[in-house]
Amino acid sequence: MLGVLTPLLSGGFFGGIIAGASRAAARAGGSVLGVQTLDAHPGDVSTSDTRFTARMGWDTVSGFLVVTTAVDDDYLEALSAAGRPYVLVGRAPGATPAPWVSADNAGGARLAVEHLLAHGHRQLAFVGELDQADVAERYAAFRAALDAAGVPHDPALAVDVPNMMESGGAVGARALLAAGLPATAVVTGNDYGAIGLVETLLGAGVRVPEDVAVVGFDDTTVGASLQPPLSSARQDFVALGEVAADLLVAQAAGVVEAGAPVRHVLPTVLRTRESCGCGRAVLTAPATPVVQGTAEGPGSARAASRSGSARAASGPGSTRAASGSGSARAAEDLGADELVAELVAHGSEPRTAQLVVAQLLARLRAAVEGRPDHAGLLASAARLQPDQPRWETSAVLLAAAQAFARAMVEELPEERRAAAGAATDAVVLELAGALTRAQLDGEVQRTATVTSALRSEYDITLELLRGDQEGVSLGWLARTPARSALLARWTQVPGELDVVGGYERSGRAGRGGQHAPHGAPPRTRVGVVRTEEFPPAELHLLVAGQPGQMVAALPLHGRERDWGVLAVVGPVESTTVTGREGYHAWASLLGLAHDRAALVAGLRESEERYALAMRAANDGLWDWDLASGRVFYSERWAAMLGRRPEELTCTPADWLELVHEDDAPALEAVLDQCRLGLVDTFEVEQRVRTGDGEQRWMLCRALAVPGGGLPATRLVGAMSDVTERRQLEDELRQAALYDTVTGLPNKALFLDRLSLAMSSARRRRQDGGFAVLFLDLDGFKVINDSLGHMVGDALLVRVAERLRGPLRETDTAARFGGDEFAVLLSGVEDADGVATVVSRLQEALEAPYEVDGHLVSVTASLGVTLGPGRYERPEDLLRDADIAMYSAKARERGSWAVFAPSMHATAVDRLRTETELRTGIERGQLRLAYQPIVDLRDGGVVGSEALARWGHPERGLVPPSGFLAVAEETGLIIPLGRMLVQEAAAQVAAWHREGRVRPGFRVSINVSNREFWQGAYPARLLEALEAAQVDPGWVAIEITETVIMHSAEQALPVLSRLKQAGLRLHVDDFGTGYSSLETLHRFPVDALKIDRSFVARLDLDERSTELVRTIVTMGRNLGVEVIAEGIETARQAERLVEMGCEYGQGYLWAQPLPAAEFAALLAGEPLPGVP
């Protein structure tokens, strides 16, 4: 079995190639699979516009003929990689070498140019689709012929057109006309292009050939019938297919090397007619017949037999043999062999042409000799061109018959010439009648075929588009010549087809390959198959060894998707005009049928969905005939209004009298607009009184008929109960303007009221008149994180209650989110007027709260702006109040400040610090420095405090005071602390591993308020230590009294967990907070760190000195270590030792040092300066 990959399956060119391949395959006992690769398109398109990738039939055929641009180079490379041989037809090989067969494009184009030059033309144009390989070769030969003749060629006279159909030729004609028709002769890439060119030129008033001579290429029947008849270069399409198929068979059999890049060229002749300026049809053959490649290879003899050369008349069965030995010289002298060659060149079969000429000579000789002849001349002559009869073939034969008759009569004595002339004239006349009848019968047959095809396609179209089976039954194929067929659809898996339908010529159709019993082929496999296995081998068995029959594979394309493949067993179609009849049309219609079925299914689904939606929507429908005044109300409409259907009068009063009096005017107005054609649709909500007297909101939608600005004659609509939606909207409106936790106005409502206050003040032209207070609760985040969001929300509710207390009805308190509140005070002239209110607010907010059994405290930092002043937007005024609040918080938590312009620069600097700090953390700019903790007794280093340092790329080393407060406020302290813990843990582990420190050496890590109260802090800290393989005893956690005592109950389990894990707990800045004794009593403290402020005043301030002595004594009595911070002088160290303090740190020994410098410091133990 041979495969043919071709853009189209029908027509003189593509169908002719398949016909030749079918002959060759039949001789080998096989069949042909024709695979169409061009999608269905309306109008004329280029046959190179293919996107075919399916591996159709790869497992069932021996190899492929690839016709022109049926597939791209990637497909050919895939064939080669899979070991499938192929032969190119009308196409040169690309990157992959392959044999190829083509007509002598160069010779035909050269003959056309030489002929036109002989007519005296010097301005020659070329029109064709230059992307086509054959056309490009013809154009190259066109230019070479002009060069050889010394005639210059203007590149502007080469017109590239979009396709090879009539529309492409029309494009070329219009281009030449637009350029002023600069050429006197045109050679086209093919006949159909020439036809479109000639018809367009004639329509523009240009005479052909008087003004422009035209020569085509392919010598089609349509071109020969054109007026004027078209001169054309003739190639034998059937021979192309036959030679290519023979070559493919030889490759598959191993007779010739597969893939050898040899070109096989078949001769081309020129048929001149009136379009070039000739008065009658003349055949011009090339000076030397061209057959390149393996001249003795497969198919070369058959190619030569159809090439039109005189050699076709030699050998057994020639005119010399047929006319008998006694008349052989006479036949040769009469030019019988030349006549045979010319008939063959016109498309007649060589053997038929030989037989007809031999019978003609015998019949004429019998007439001359006065004896009867029954050689069957008339019947043979009628078979010269059974497929596409041409008048010029008959004209050639009749002219030759008259010449033969004259020559024979002139050989006779004078007295016999009259009788012999009359007898031969009768033979010629009888021959003319037979040829005319054959020609007319052929035309009638062609007309009947076309009519039948049109009727069949019309019936098929109706059957496919009316049906709901998407063509699955394939019963419509009974109207076609198809013998058998299978329909397969693509599955969701690429490369898989599902065989869903079958057909047999018996007239019975089945599904899934269930063929009729009479004459049915072997049962084909049902269900899913691979693309390579389709069409199945069983279909090929139906046409094996039968020339003129094939299996056609037709991809089914829809508008937006590929549906599948239709495999058809039927005749080869080589006589259709455009190539889009028959198989192509069936595939196109079946693809559209699938589209239509999908559309119908979608519409049906949509209708069902709409019906279900209407039921789900529970709408009441109504239909008002404005002419009669009658209204149809659905049962649901009546039920919605608490009415029974029988209670309705079917008039507008059933509805309009129930509408609320406030809503009725709007409804009546829009109804009047519809009646007048002013609007086509409307949507209005109204309150309607139901049967039990309840007022419910109803949404009414309506459509006016006919619409389009015309007065309505009918209104159709639906009514929905939207009462719950209206209630929800009211609730949402409340939620959109008020805080859901506290019930206070939210930011949106606050800004709206602030905007009104600003407008009112401007109208009165007063600079004062109101003030904005921005509040932030100090300590709320700790409570929220430690006690949970439920407690946090309850605390916010209590804060909101206290916030309202000191305010007047004209004032507005609002919550913006989190722990941020704002207050709009009206009737305020200056800052003094605000102070009293602020004091009352702070006093109310600072009192302890009892929330869910917890006693908690918060303070409020406030910022104040007075308005309207210079402000244009309420957002700007609020922004400055926020800046003032941060300024107050930075100075002292729980304080308040009035905005001053200088605060803006501070706020900008704070924002910059926050942004740069975030970047610094991400880029690792923050590192640890280590300050030694020294044993005051021997100068040994027993530990170190890890302190954060920021190496800013522009500002240099930034001290902790420059960024820690911002980190704490913004939450950046969390990722910063996590990063520094990991670094400290890794460093202390390295020092212990390297033996640089004492066995008990530990590093102290500071923990901020926000870090400590983060719920996951203990777990994350222990995970970091475990990841660094650090003994928890090597780490001390430093935490201030303030952090612990913020919520002692919640702090105790956190500290206990850390202590149980083996970490040491140090109380930092001891003595500066509150409840110090409580700290020592309740919490598992390991060490107290005396604040540097007390150490600095030793011997300078008696109270500080006694306080230090007390702390040391307290620690010693309780077994708690005491570490003094900020030791800068030897005297301070001496005094601490005298008091019994064991450990200290400070600049006396070292500033905080990078890890490398700290390691060097350890090498110098004991440190100097110890008393």
TrEMBL record:
User: Record's InterPro entries?
Assistant: Biofilm_reg_signaling, EAL_dom, EAL_sf, GGDEF_dom, LacI/GalR-like_sensor, Nucleotide_cyclase, PAS, PAS-assoc_C
User: What are the EAL domain coordinates in residue numbering?
Assistant: 910-1166
A Pfam family of the record is: PAS_3
Q: What are the record keywords, sorted?
A: DNA-binding, Transcription, Transcription regulation
Quick one: where's region Disordered? 289-329
Keyword Transcription recorded: yes
Domain (PAC) ranges: 682-734
Q: Specify the domain of life of the species encoding this protein.
A: Bacteria
Q: Cite the SUPFAM superfamilies for this sequence.
A: EAL domain-like, Nucleotide cyclase, Periplasmic binding protein-like I, PYP-like sensor domain (PAS domain)
User: GO molecular function terms here?
Assistant: DNA binding
Q: Which residues are in the GGDEF domain?
A: 768-901
Q: Does the keyword Disulfide bond apply?
A: no
Question: Compositional bias of type Low complexity: which residue ranges?
Answer: 297-329
- What Gene3D superfamilies does the record point to? 3.30.70.270, 3.40.50.2300, EAL domain (3.20.20.450), PAS domain (3.30.450.20)
Ranges where the PAS domain occurs: 606-673
UniProt xrefs under PANTHER family: BIOFILM ARCHITECTURE MAINTENANCE PROTEIN MBAA, DIGUANYLATE CYCLASE DGCP
What protein name is recorded for this chain?
A: PAS domain S-box-containing protein/diguanylate cyclase (GGDEF)-like protein
Q: What organism, scientifically named, is this protein from? A: Motilibacter rhizosphaerae
Q: What is the lineage of its organism?
A: Bacteria, Bacillati, Actinomycetota, Actinomycetes, Motilibacterales
